Amino acid sequence: MAKKTQAKLSPWDIVQIARHAERPNIGDYLRLLCDDFVELHGDRLFGDDRGMIGGFATIGGERVMLIGHRKGRGIDENIEANFGMASPEGYRKAMRLMRLAEKYGLPVVTFVDTPGAYPGSEAEARGQAEAIAHNLEFMSTLKTPIIVVVCGEGGSGGALGIAVGDRILMLQNAVYSVISPEGCASILWRDGTKAALAAETLKITAGSLKELGIIDEIVPEPAGGAHTDPAAAVAAVKKAVLANLAVLKKLPLDKLVEQRYAKFSAMGRF
Amino acid sequence: MSWFEKTAEAPAHVPTEAIWAVCPGCKAYIAKDAWRAADKVCPRCNHHARLGCRERVALLTDAGSFKELNPEVSFNDPLRFTDSTGAYADKAKATIAKVGVGEAVLTGTAAIEKIPVVLAVMDFAFMGGSLGSGTGERILLAAEKAVALKRPLIIVSASGGARMHEGIVSLMQMAKTCAAIARVKEAGLPYFSILTDPTTGGVSASYAMVGDLNIAEPKALIGFAGRRVIEQTIKQKLPEDFQTAEYTLAHGFLDHIVPRKEMKAFLANVLRYAGF
After folding, report:
1. Are B153 and B192 part of one and the same domain?
2. Rounded distance, CA B268 to CA B276, Å?
3. Of A243, B149, B210, B235, whose Cβ has the fewest other Cβ atoms within 10 Å?
4. Are B167 and B78 in contact (CB under 8 A)?
5. Residue B40's domain spans which residues?
6. According to DSSP H, which parts of B100-210 are helical?
7. For chain B, what is the largest distance between any 2 Cα atoms, rounded to a whole number of angstroms?
8. pLDDT digits 0-9 by tens, A174-192
9. ipTM for the predicted complex
C-alpha cells in the first residue's frame, strides 16, 4: 500500500492508514509537538478516563489547553486507554478542562482519534449520550478559540464530542465518519464485507470532507502516510495549528462565537 | 388461566387489520376503536406505541393552534447515496409521500393550555426518525423562532439516530441543533425535551438529552449505543430493563416519566413554573 501514490489510494486504503498501529497518536503529539505538558486528570464526578487525556500544553511558545483521544501504543496501553473509546468520564473531563481554558483565556486544541465512544453497559449507565450532548452544546458557546485536529479516526459522536470548533483541520490520511465503514456495510448492505464500498460511498476522507464544507484545511502527510515519518507529520500539524491560532487570537471573543454558530448552522444547507 | 383472562385471539376469516390493532408490547388484540380512544396506549400492558407526528401534535396542543413552520425544508442528498436497496433520494421521496411530512420532524408554533410555544415533533415512520440535514435545519429554525418570539421550545424525539445516508453531514446536525438549543437557553427560555420510544444514537447524544427538563414516556427505549452492539462488546446479556425510561430515570438522566394521557397537562403545569 505504501507503494501506491496518494492519488491512487482508495478510501478503504486510507482507512487502513488512519488506523495504522504506528500512526502518530496523542502520545507522539505530546512528545514531538509540545514544549511542555501538564496533564490534568479526572472529571471530578466519577473517575479519570485514560482514553481521553488533556492538560496545559505549550506549542511553539503558545500556551493552550490540549485535549485528545488516546488509543495508546502496544497492547497494555491499548487496554488501559480502551483503544481510544472514551467513556462519559472522558467527555466530562474534556468539558471541565475547556471551562478552565475559557476562564484562563487559553485557546483549546483537540486531537480527534477514536473508533467511537465506548459502547458498554457502564458507559450507558453513566450517560454516554448526555455527556456527548452537553459537550456539543457547551462547545458551541465557549468563549475561547477552539482548533480541532482530526489526526486519525474520527469515529462518529465519539469524535464530535470534542470536535466542535472554529477551525477543523484534518490530516490527509485521517478519516471522519458518521459510522464505521464496517458498521454501515452491515446495516445498509447487510454484508460486513462491503466495507470498502461503504467507505467509498460515505465520503469519509479529507478531500471529500473539504468539498462538503465540513473541514477547513487539509494537513499534508509525508508520502506513504504519517507513520513513515512522524517528525515531519507532526511538524506539518504544528505549522497549521500555529497559523490558525494566530488568526483566531485576533478575533474578539463574541465575534468568534458568532462565527462558530454561523459555521455549524450552515452545515447541511445546500 | 381462565378463559376470560386469555389474550383475545383474532377471529378466523376476518381481515384483522380492519377491526383489531395488535399491541406491539404484549401482542394482545385490541379493538381498533378502543386502541384509538386510548391514543395507542395498550389497556392491558400500558405499552405506549409509536405515534405519528400529527397524532402527537393533536394530543399535546390546543385544537387548531398548531401552525407549521418551514414545510419547504426537506432532505438533501449530499453524498448521492445509493446502497444495495437503491438510491436514498428515491427512498426519501417515497417516505415523504407515505408519511405526509417533508422530514423526520414536524415543527410549528402552537399553544398548550393557551401557553404559546414552539413545538418540534419527530416521526419514527420517516426513515426511523433519523436525523438528516433537513431534520437538523428544521430544528435549528424552530429554536431560532422560539428565541425570536420569546417562547419556550419543546422537542418530542423519536429516532434511531443519525441518518447514515447523509454521512458526515448528518453527524454535523448533532452539533448544529445543540448550538441552536444553547441559544434558546442563553435567551433565558425554557427548553423541554420529551423522549419517546425510541430515542437513541445521535439524537440522544444531542438535543434530546440537554433539556432543562428531560421527560419520557413509560418504557421508552433511551440510550446511546444499540443493545446488540453493547452485548457484543461486553460479551454478556443485558438485563431486560436496560435502556428503558425507568432505567434512565434511575440513573439520573430524566426528570420525570409521564404517561401519554397526562403529558399535555404536565407540560402546561411545568411551563407555568417556568414563568409562562
Report:
1. yes
2. 9
3. B235
4. yes
5. 1-49
6. 133-149, 167-186, 201-204
7. 61
8. 999 999 999 999 888 888 8
9. 0.97
Q: Is the peptide bond before A11 cis (omega within 30 degrees of 0)?
A: no
**How long, in residues, is chain B?**
276
The pLDDT value recorded for residue B259 is 98
Residues of B in Cβ contact (< 8 Å) with A136: 174-175, 178-179, 205-206
Radius of gyration (Cα) for chain B, nearest Å?
Answer: 19
Same domain, B33 and B141: no
Query: Locate cell 447524544: which residue?
Result: B205
Residues B181 and B237 in one domain: yes
Cα dihedral across residues A176, A182, A187, A189: positive or negative: positive
Helix (H), strand (E) at residue B57:
helix B53-60
Q: Are residues B249 and B171 in the same domain?
A: yes
CB contact at 8 A, B113 and B153 = no
In angstroms, the CA A27 to CA A33 distance is: 10
Same-domain status, B54 and B128: yes
Selecting from A119, A267, A270 the residue whose C-beta is nearest the C-beta of B233 gives A119
- Residues facing B21 on adjacent strands: B30
What are the residue ranges of helices labelled H in chain A? 11-18, 26-33, 75-80, 88-104, 121-125, 128-139, 156-160, 181-184, 195-202, 206-211, 230-249, 253-265
Residue in B82, B183, B204 nearest the CB of A129: B204
Query: Which chain A residue's Cα is nearest to B178?
Result: A137
**Residue B6: pLDDT over 90:** no
Query: Closest residue of B to A259, CA-based?
Result: B179
Per-residue pLDDT at B7:
66
Q: Is the dihedral of CA B223, B229, B234, B239 positive or negative?
A: positive
Helix or strand or coil: residue B234? helix
Superfamily name with CATH number, domain A7-260:
2-enoyl-CoA Hydratase; Chain A, domain 1 (3.90.226.10)
A 105-144 → B contacts, CB under 8 A: 117-121, 123-130, 132-134, 136-141
For residue B107, give the CATH number of its domain.
3.90.226.10
* Subunit contact A269:B137, Cβ cutoff 8 A: yes
> SS3 of B63, please?
coil
The sign one gets for the Cα dihedral B223, B226, B229, B230 is: positive
Cell output for B136: 437538523
Q: Are A188 and A201 in contact (CB under 8 A)?
A: no
What is the grid cell recorded at B132? 438528516
Same domain flag for B16 and B120: no
DSSP category for residue A5? -
Residues B125 and B156 in one domain: yes
List all residues of chain B from 184 to 203 with a beta carbon under 8 Å from chain A: 185-186, 200-202
**pLDDT at position B11 over 60:** no
Overall domain count for chain B: 2
Nearest CB to B79 within list A130, A176, A201: A201
